[in-house]
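Dear colleague,

Thank you for sharing your sequence with our group. We've completed the structure prediction you requested, and as agreed, I am returning the results in plain text so they can be pasted directly into your records. Please verify that the sequence below matches your submission; if there's any discrepancy, let me know and we will rerun it promptly.
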Amino acid sequence: MKVFLFLIAIHFLFVSGCKKNRVPTVRTYEITKITETSATCGGAISDDGSGTVIERGICWSKGINPTVADSKTIEGAGAGNFISHMENLYPATTYFVKAYATNKAGTGYGMAMSFKTTNRITPLQKLYYQMVKDRYAVPDRFEDFETTFKNLENARLLFNQLTEDNYSIPDNFIDFLYVFGLKKKEDPGEFGLPSEKVFADLFANFRKHIFRPPH
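Please find the predicted structure tokens below.
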């Protein structure tokens, strides 16, 4: 009987010890918004382990196994999801990044994800990231923005031609866009469409870099 109770006690202590030493369980998000010197990542903490998460974020390095001893961000504490941004990266360089979360037992890591910064930023990319920073309602992916921008330039050329030929069309280019469904009608502003003047400036400054003039 004493042996049986002894084994139960050992089992209890072993299980209790394991529970007291579990690091958080973390998943690393896909890397997005990759530029010449920055990128965005994040993570999801599905289990905070044997203690409250006291620090979380992402860590990265040029080596395949980044840790919190390398470059890192801190995105608060607690379980849940988070997004974080890497900055001051080198152009045309491969990096590895992991989400991490730390509790009293230690630090848990998500799977390492790799990405490569771009070699250079085109004028249109600069425009895109500036509009993202200014919180305009632009597509999540630069490729979609590029397509939309080309559509807008084509629409501008069409608008000018139809106006010159005296067709019955809206007097304002923004209203003309709404008619063709290129943009939903929203009040220009922080989360809406740039103003007509902004569009005009964009076309004037960037058209020469990516469009050939009509023949």
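Summary note from our side: Helices lie at 2-19, 123-133, 142-164, 173-179, 196-210.

Kind regards,
the structure core
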